[in-house]
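Hi R.,

Here's the chain you asked about this morning:
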Amino acid sequence: MARTKKTPARKAAKKTRPSAKAKRPAAPAKTKVHAKPAPKRAKPAPKKAAAKRPVRIAPAKPLAILVATRKGAWIYRGDSARRSWRVDGPHFLGHIVNHMVLDPRDGRTLLAAAKTGHIGPTIFRSTDLGKTWKEAAKPPAFAKAPEGEKGRAVDHTFWLTPAHANEPNVWYAGTSPQGLFRTEDGGVTWEPFSIVNDDPQFRVWMGSVQDGTPDGPKMHSIIVDPRDPSHLYFAMSGGGVHETTDKGRTWTPLFEGLSVVFGDATNLESHDPHCVRMCATNPDRLYQQNHCGIYRLDRPGKRWDRIGNAMPAEIGDIGFTMVVHPRDDNTCWVLPMDGGTVWPRVSLQGKPSVFVTRDGGQSWRKVANGLPKQQAWWTVKRQAMAADAGNPVGLYFGTTGGEVWMSRDEGRNWETMARNLPEIYAVETATPA
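And the predicted structure, written out as tokens:
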């Protein structure tokens, strides 16, 4: 990789780094898990004041790691130092759980998107942090097709997002095949939201079920602007990224600068975003892990810049998941997959690695100490990586091999916190009340 010219901001950042002679922190202690009894260079990121390295203090509150799998869900409850974890689960043993999310507005309500063998796709709700669950009275379902026409059926709910802080009990859900739904009673009853599900143009962009990913096309990455409940984004695999500023009355696609594997780049049916993330402290910055690379979008701009071009050429920038730092909009982490002909994707050469950028994508650095050095041929799916709000930030990801990996120090060191689970679909962090 070509060396970049040092800017004033980079020089300032260098001054803040500790001396090479400074004593290194001790290696993190092993985690204890207690079983519950019985093609162009990206534009540089805007210059900003150099940030000091994070102070090594633990999160203020205990954490919960929510793990959704092919055969149930687990909750790992950790102490504030993130060194001891208590297992709560399994919940919904034997059922496919695609996503489990804690409502940050009350710290007690959990929603779980499940597909059961006897009642089909549904959503379960708990108001006591998972002690008891109730099934939704009316889960997401497409409107009945007119007589003589073939309608669509929800195969599973894939994505759950709490709405704006000023809209208690409101949630959004994305399904497979692609559908957008909303509840206003905390998840008890769900209705189609906006024009998306049945609009003729959206239906063309969605393509057919056979054109989607191996386990079905997805509506995902539903994002609510924390400044404005009327401003939302969502992504469809396939079908592209879309934005509304009027609470769903109209939508604008955001595809400029994105590559496609085949077809016309102006046809959204050819676009396959894997994961889109918003920076919590800068809602005008979005990152995207796409089928064709890693991108960044700075609003009010409409063009995505391929920041993945700065990744090492032998690694590439293809993958599913990504995580953004909760306080630094220049920092995000990705976990590359084999971008060749291997399908489903697997870790490159069986050597999984996490990469981090701390300058908005101008450069990337490998952070893989503790991860397997060979023969780890698993996949990390688009919902299966998350970050907590600690300082330093804790990172977590789950694999199709049933392992949960964690880092207490922003990716510098990794260790397993759980093994022998079913195939992991999603990992979320939560701060219970």
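Residues 1-30, 35-39, 47-52, 54-59 have pLDDT under 50 and may be disordered.

Let me know if you need anything else.
M.
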